[in-house]
Design brief:
This protein has 3 domains: 1-48 and 191-205, no CATH class; 51-185, Pseudouridine synthase (2-Layer Sandwich); 215-268, PUA domain (Archaeosine Trna-guanine Transglycosylase, Chain: A, domain 4, Roll). It contains 7 helices and 17 strands. The protein has helices at residues 3-14, 44-48, 85-93, 116-121, 160-171, 208-211, 222-229, and strands spanning 19-21, 30-31, 35-37, 52-60, 63-64, 73-74, 97-101, 110-111, 114-115, 131-144, 147-154, 175-185, 188-189, 217-219, 244-248, 251-259, 262-268.
């Protein structure tokens, strides 16, 4: 299933068009997809910037045009000796930190106003600019040449397919991603997630405030809560930075940012 397929099913089950997610999963990938419904769809951007944890499997020996198992092989397969475990660990460790990463040709990146995967599938040429990404941690879990498995904690916009491709380049063997599972998005873990079969009612939903638990919280009273719902500034933001979660009675009222010494609501949730 694609991420779009999941969204379509949830729209039907909850009888609302207002359903989105906080980051697409490749069709061959499994794992966690954080969905947002109703007014919470406007909070998605605050989750997209959170770190993500992936379990990934790659196969050395051949690169593909999609950087994964769904693509066409590029060039001749590797026929030399396989890299040592020490070489693989060194290559993975060398990816930790900030870097510029070239997105896969088959991705959601925009090229001249069109998704790059659509251009690539038509056989069009692509010149995707490298994007700044952050890889916080990488751990090699298993190495059985030519297959390796690793876990990575990454910042927004980081492609694990591109990691597999670049790993093959560094090792000189070529390589592509063969399996991918998203295990976490910020504080949300796949172990605590509901399956599609379990989404039979609102008991699976969590409060919008949980979506932005990583933001600083500021408690407001009823009067300020009413002002926020009308788009009006409240309180004092002197010396503070935003955004912040503005909470009334345990419920998220708005996301605010400092403006002219007060908190200006930039996202307001209905009462």
């Amino acid at each position: 299933m694609t991420s779009h397929d999941v969204v379509a099913q949830v729209r039907r089950r909850f009888r609302t068009r207002a359903v989105g997610h906080t980051g697409t999963l490749d069709p061959f990938a499994t794992g966690l997809l954080v969905l947002v419904l109703g007014g919470a769809t406007r909070l998605a951007r605050f989750v997209e910037a959170e770190r993500k944890v992936y379990w990934a499997e790659a196969r050395l020996g051949v690169a593909t045009d999609s950087d994964d198992l769904t693509g066409r092989p590029l060039g001749e397969p590797w026929s030399g000796e396989w890299p040592t475990r020490e070489a693989v660990v060194a290559a993975l460790t060398g990816m930790i930190g900030p870097s510029l990463q070239r997105p896969p040709a088959y991705s959601a990146k925009q090229v001249g106003g069109e998704r790059s995967h659509r251009v690539a599938r038509r056989g069009g040429s692509l010149d995707l600019a490298p994007a700044a990404v952050m890889i916080h941690a990488v751990t090699l879990l298993e190495y059985r040449p030519p297959v390796l498995v690793w876990r990575a904690e990454v910042g927004p916009g980081t492609y694990l397919r591109a990691m597999a491709r670049d790993l093959g380049l560094v090792l000189g063997t070529g390589g592509h991603l063969t399996a991918l599972r998203r295990e976490a998005v910020g504080r949300f873990r796949v172990e605590a997630a509901s399956s599609l079969d379990q989404l039979t009612g609102t008991e699976a939903l969590i409060a919008p405030a949980a979506l932005v638990e990583h933001l600083p919280r500021i408690e407001v009273g009823q009067e300020d809560g009413a002002r926020l719902r009308h788009g009006q500034r409240v309180g004092s933001s002197e010396g503070a930075a935003g955004p912040v979660a503005l909470i009334e009675g345990g419920h998220l009222v708005a996301i605010g940012e400092p403006r002219d010494g007060q908190w200006q609501p930039i996202v307001v949730l209905a009462a």
